[in-house]
Please model this.
Amino acid sequence: MALTMRALTESQLQALRERVGPQKVSRNESELWVHARDEGGHGEHPPDCIVYAESRDDVVQVLKFCHHERIPVVPWGAGTSLEANPVALYGGVCLDLSRMNRVVEIRPEDFQVTVEPGVVHYDLNKQLSRYGLFFPPDPGAPATIGGIVANNAAGIQAVKYGSVKHYVLQLEVVLAHGEVLRLGSRAMRSSSGYDLVHLFVGSEGTLGVFTEITLKLVGIPPEVSAATASFPRLEKATQAVVEIVQAGLSPAALELMDPVTVRDINAFKGLELPEMPTLFLEFRGNGPEVAEDVRLAQEICEGNGCVSYQSVLGREERDRLWEARHHAYYASAAANPGKRAIVTDVAVPISKFPEMVEFSRQKLEEFGLGGPILGHAGDGNFHVGIFYGDEEERAKAHQVNEAIVLKALELGGTATGEHGVGVGKIAFMEREHGAGYRWMHQIKKLFDPHGILNPGKIFPPE
Amino acid sequence: MALTMRALTESQLQALRERVGPQKVSRNESELWVHARDEGGHGEHPPDCIVYAESRDDVVQVLKFCHHERIPVVPWGAGTSLEANPVALYGGVCLDLSRMNRVVEIRPEDFQVTVEPGVVHYDLNKQLSRYGLFFPPDPGAPATIGGIVANNAAGIQAVKYGSVKHYVLQLEVVLAHGEVLRLGSRAMRSSSGYDLVHLFVGSEGTLGVFTEITLKLVGIPPEVSAATASFPRLEKATQAVVEIVQAGLSPAALELMDPVTVRDINAFKGLELPEMPTLFLEFRGNGPEVAEDVRLAQEICEGNGCVSYQSVLGREERDRLWEARHHAYYASAAANPGKRAIVTDVAVPISKFPEMVEFSRQKLEEFGLGGPILGHAGDGNFHVGIFYGDEEERAKAHQVNEAIVLKALELGGTATGEHGVGVGKIAFMEREHGAGYRWMHQIKKLFDPHGILNPGKIFPPE
Model:
């Protein structure tokens, strides 16, 4: 039986209201439009209604009903994604989890916390700081933990701390037909059967809906040292990145910004960074090794012709720089009014990073398109914002995007380091995974035989 | 169609010989018995024949044929496991991968290596050391990389470096029907679809056979410092473990041995360690933070009444201690001649570690059974060797084992931290995973519809 591709009927809406309570179901026009798109450029698709879940039982009720009625259900966190990951392409129910935002239990003695999916990571870290603990993955945007886990987001600190998947110990998941699974354990290691936790991490709401998440935490390191380094040429900056990683230094952040990015954030945030290829570096640790790492990193930068290496002194200046970095995407959007962007998200082995960045720069130039190049260089992951206005530019932007992704795959990399597949990367899945992609699809069909969960994401519509 | 539960026919053997070459197929009696058991106590089950695969194509040929003929195929690495993980309970083909032991490619510039599954981790680390790199997981025994990945083994250094799953970037897997999948990428982060790599890590040969594995590596830290600490009472030692972890120290190893273990290894290796509850600690790092961590650890141990804290000076003494630790299992077996053992492998959140160890000690005492308690304390994972002689003791040993596992689950832990499920932990899977266990089974049936791959492991026989 195919999915309902039409609007929900009035009787279906009524049934939903009865199941979860009428105040949790909204068809308010402006709310529908708020939930019609994320921060990416994939257009607007309002759902037929929004259900604001307040408990696991609400999620179960919605899924049981929609499974039976073949209505799409698309989980929604904060809408800060870039690949339309939580957008209801085929209408149906937008299952907004932002009200499920309780920090259920902090267990500082085990460096663990259990949260509901709607908790925003900034808020979580604020609560954790009183225990001297934090959850390292930070995608920049005010994303929810549920969204971060669903996308296996990584962000700026993954180069030191690893991506989200290293931090997820347990998941409570509601399957398409409403069954509740409790996956994983609180032990720090386990070889107990198949790793279903990691199957669900990064599944982008296509296999189930998270209702509770237990995370591993890290102690806040007392020593922090940050710096900016400006280079005359992009390839010198990327070479410095490679050498810092290869030297075994373990920066908490190692971010690259090209001159376009620097110009955009200078304009957007009133900063005066030299408009040159720039690295943001941050080191965190418990003691004297931090100063030593900073010194070595400076040596490497200078060995690569760095013209300015500035230690960032004080928390305020550091916060301002990171805020600027986090807002780079908005800054570039502001610098390209009326334009939309395709944002690439390739990641390659670190030794291929300079080649990959240079290739991307040349492709932009070759097609006469503008846009920033920036990224989580220490992990070999970076983004190109390929801005376009008219139809002709749009076609070119797609060609540049395709060329960049195919190059990354050729270099042993991936189409998406942290944004997820959503709709934007579907075209490259077969190429990246070969037969593995078909097996992913088999697993999807096993867990969600009617295809109600986030249809049109990761896999093309049936 | 049910599995063949009888010996292979002569014509089936002949067909196998034709497919892979006759010299790779053995029915030599003594070889069959060498492959009849691992190092655990689950009895002897010789396969019908052994195929010594020398290439991916051999693996494909064996699986295609056995899938068609419904013959069990059980992958074999070094046979150092403890839960009968590679034992052919239902006969069929033992697929010995030890000849596929090439280090395919070392890429020091990316901290990566690609190996065949039969490489022994000691040999790999020997080859890597010339690049200043190593693969941290070390289960103690001379296991193969294929076996380590199949069991998601962890070993002594996981407390600092994480378990195997953090290190597997790519897998080449042959599925039951002979299809070859290439999973993962060489990028350090990816959000590209479902994480099939981690589905296969820890699947114990029940979903597919690895033919190539790409691992992430770590730079060898120049500073190493080790120590032993002896405590008057077991609960003081376990409390010190908790405090060391909670202080945010990051030992490369934090191992607990009870007096029985110390006595056994003293006897086995001619050592003279005080026969008291003992911690082995090791710290590794790049510089002065190592000495600082050692100092803090010593303070914590002394605060818990440690009567002797000995820095281990020099590589030779350290190697001798670790060798003794690695041989603890053999030492205890030697101290219990004619007896067999059930080895528990529970892991619990660190705050529950003292309670869990004390519970185990009391259970042994209550049932009048002997055996060592030792383990990877820093991860909350430990082993009790429950030795038994006659049938009455055997029944008691099973009761103790069951009590320990159920207690661990009650405390939020897992039945198996690193040994895998094999046959020995099947009884606890439903209890640990609830409905998740049935979904694991669904995935098994999806990938291996005839159930030829390692039947009777992780799941009960059909």
Q: What stands out?
A: The domain at 103-219 of chain A is CATH 3.30.465.10 (Uridine Diphospho-n-acetylenolpyruvylglucosamine Reductase; domain 3). Chain A has a mean pLDDT of 94. Chain A touches chain B through 86 residues (CB under 8 Å).
